[in-house]
Amino acid sequence: MSESNSRQRQQAEDAFGKTQSPRTARDRAFDEIDATKAAAEEKTSKLRAARLARDAQSKAESASKPAAKRAKKPK
């Protein structure tokens, strides 16, 4: 009798495992997508910070230089 129960239990656990497999595969796929998005956001924020620093430095340099006089166009 216990052999019958354990066989039925094993079959039930196998069936349950098969229904859980697609869900876990889906979860792993979503985790991978989330990790990719997080890495892209981190890279974007670093690039944005570098761009803003470069622009601020450029603006500071241009403010410290006197404005160049333009040559008038001959008519």
Q: What does this entry look like structurally?
A:
The protein has one helix at residues 2-64. The longest helix is centred in the middle third of the chain and has 63 residues, at 2-64. It is built from 1 helix and no strands. The protein is 84% helix and 0% strand. It is mainly alpha-helical. The mean pLDDT is 86.
Order of helices and strands: H
Distance between the termini: 111 Å
Q: Please, how many helices?
A: 1
Mean pLDDT: 86
Largest sheet: none
Number of strands: 0
The best one-word shape is rod-shaped
- How much of the sequence lies in strands comes to under 5%
- Low-pLDDT runs of 5+ residues are none
Please identify the structural class as seen in this structure.
mainly alpha
Measured as a percent range, the helix fraction is over 70%
Rg over CA atoms = 32 Å
Write the layout of secondary structure elements.
Blueprint: H1 2-64
Q: Main attributes?
A:
mainly alpha; 0% strand; 1 helix; 75 residues
Brief overview:
This protein is mainly alpha-helical.
